[in-house]
Amino acid sequence: MGAGASADDRSRIQQRSKIVTAIMGLANKPHHAPLVAAKTQWRISAPYAGTSAEPTGPEQELLAILNDPVGQKHIGIFAKKIMTAETFFCWVEIKEFRDAPSIGYRKSLAKLIYKKYIKNGAPMALGSITADIIALYDKKITDMERDATLMTPDFFDRLMTLITTDMVQNTYLRFKTSSEYDIYKKEMKDTYNKVTVEDFEYLELLGSGGFGRVVHARKKSTGKHYAMKIQLKTGLLDEHHDQLSQITSEKDILQICHNPFVLDMHYSFQTSAHAIIVTELVRGGDLGEALKSSREGYITEDRVRLYAAEIGLALNHMHDLGLIYRDLKPGNVLLGEDGHVVLADMGLAAGYDPGNLKKDDNGNTKYVPQNAKFTRRKTTVGTRGYMAPEIISGKLVKRDQRPGYTHAVDYWSLGVTIFELLCGFQPFSVYSGGNFFQEVANEEIFRLSPRTQHKIELQKMAQGVTFPPHLSKNAQDFLRRLLEVNAEIRLGCSPEKGFQEFMDHAFFEVVDWEKLMMKHIDPKFKPTLPPLTDKKIYNSYDHMMSHFDMRDKDFIRHDWYADPDPEMQKHFDSWDYISQYTLRAELGIAKELDETNIPYKVLQLTGEDIKNKKK
What we know:
It is a single chain. The protein is globular, with a radius of gyration of 26 Å. The chain has three domains: 7-192 and 584-614, Regulator of G-protein Signalling 4, domain 2; 197-282 and 531-575, Phosphorylase Kinase, domain 1, CATH 3.30.200.20; 287-427 and 465-517, Transferase(Phosphotransferase), domain 1, CATH 1.10.510. The relative contact order is 0.14. Helix 3 (69-81) runs antiparallel to helix 4 and helix 3 (69-81) packs antiparallel against helix 8. A six-stranded antiparallel beta sheet has the order 1-2-3-5-4-10, sandwiched between helices. The chain has a two-stranded antiparallel ribbon with strand order 6-7. A two-stranded antiparallel ribbon has the order 8-9. The chain has 23 helices and ten strands. By secondary structure, it is α+β, with helices and mostly antiparallel strands. The longest helix has 20 residues, at 301-320. Residues 61-181 form the RGS domain. InterPro entries: AGC-kinase_C, Kinase-like_dom_sf, Prot_kinase_dom, Protein_kinase_ATP_BS, RGS, RGS_sf, RGS_subdomain_2, Ser/Thr_kinase_AS. It holds the Pfam family Pkinase. GO terms for molecular function: ATP binding; protein serine/threonine kinase activity.
C-alpha cells in the first residue's frame, strides 16, 4: 500500500483479515469454476496522458510505462513486491473504465472500482486516499444512480491524479533503480512481433463450411488455447461482391465489441490466400444443443433467466455501439465452461461504420457510434422462425417502400429464443404437439409461394402466443412483451425507458445486475467437459489444412489455395489486428488483476457487501 495511510484507515485494513479467512475457506472447497470473471476486460486503445496538460519528468516516464503492456507487467510485479499493488491495480481499472465502449459497462466498472478501492470497508482500500475523496465519490456514485449521463470518462480524474502522484513517489522512483526495471528494458526489445500461422500449434478440427474452417489451436509462446477461424479470401470476395466494404465487417465488429458476454477476438491476421480470426475457445456447446440434451424437452426457468439476462446485456452493449445483431437464435449463443453465455457469429450484424472511428486529443483512434439505437435498416436478413414481423413485412414490398427497422428486432428474436428454451418449441410453429405432425404441416406450408408463407407467418404472429402450464406468470408476461408485434412498445425498446425497462421486469426480480455484469454470479449449471487436449496432432498449418482437404474432399467447392488477384488484396489491408487485452493477458497482468478481484467477490458471495450497504 502507498504511504500516507492514517490511523483512521486501520479499521478498513483490518477488514481484509476476515476476507483472507473467507478466501482460504473457499480455496479448500472443490469448485468447477473460478470465483472471478474468466476474462478480465483489458485494453489500452487510448493511452492515459495524465490530468495535467503537460506531465513532465517522473510522472511522464511513469505514464509511458503504464500505457505499455510490457511496462505495465513489470511495474505491477514490482508494486506487488513492495506492497503498493492496490494503487497500481486501481490505476489500471480506472484506465479500463475510461476505455469502456458503452455507458452500461462503464457504470458497472465504476461501481466495482468504488466498492473495491474507495468506500469505507473496501477490500483493497487505498492507503493514500483521504476522507474528502471518499465523501466525494460517495456522492458521485449516488448521483450516478439517478443520472447515468454523469458517467463520463473523466469520472475518476480526481482520484487518478492522487494515485498517479502516489505511484510516482512510492513505486516508480524505487522501480527505476531495481533489477525489475532492467528486465523490463530488455523485454521491451522483443515483444511486439507480427502474428503468423507459425506461432500456433494445431490440435483438432472443430468444423467447416463453404469457405470457412475452424480449428482448435494453441499459441506456442504462451500455451493458451484458442479457436481459429480460417476464411478463404476468394470466398469472402465472392460473398460480398456487391458490397466489398463488408468483407471485414465481422472482424471489425468483434474488434470494437468489448463485453463479458460477447465473443472475444484476440488476433486477426492473414496469409496470401486466407483471412484468419482467432477468438476465445468456448467449449460448452450452444443453447440449441443444451435444449436438445434436456430430459424434460425444455430448460428450467431459473437457468434460462440467467441466459436471458446475459444475452440482454450483450445485445444492449451492441446497441449502444450502434449495432444490430439480427441473427439471435439458440445456435448462436455459446455456453462457456463457467456456465455463462457468449454471443457469437457476427456474420449478419449491421451498423459498423468506419466513419465512426475518431481521433482523440492524443491522436488515438476510438469507435464513437452515432444515433446508437434508432438508425433504421432495410435489408431483410435473419433465420426463419426468429425474424421480427417488421423484417418479414419488408419482404412483401420493394426496398424503397420499406419503413425499415431498428434494434427492436433483436428483442423479438430474444423472445423467440427464450420461449424456445423454456417451452421446447418455437412460439409460432405450425403445430407444436409432436414432431411428426409438425413436419407434415410444415411440408404443406413449404409448397406455397414465399410471399404466401410470409403472410401466414405474420398472421400467426398477430394472433399472439399461448403458453404451456409450467411457465410462471412472470415468464409469460416477459415473453408476451418481447413478442409484441408493435416494435415501438416491445419490451426494452421504448425511447424513454429503453433497456432499463427490460432489467426492471419482474422476471428478473432476483437478478443482481451489477454483479452479473462483472460475472460475479456463479451459475448453478456448468457444462461437464473433458480436459483440454494438449496433444499436437498436426505438424504445421499446411499439414492441418491438408487433413481438412482429405476429410471434406466430397464437399469442397472452392480452391483453398488460390490467391485473390493482386488488385483485390487491397480489401484486406486493414485485416491484421492484435488485441491489447490479449497482450496483457499473455503477459500475466490479467491473471494478477483477477486475483485482486477475489476479496471483492468474497464480500459479494458471503453477503458482506449487502450488510455494509445497509449500515
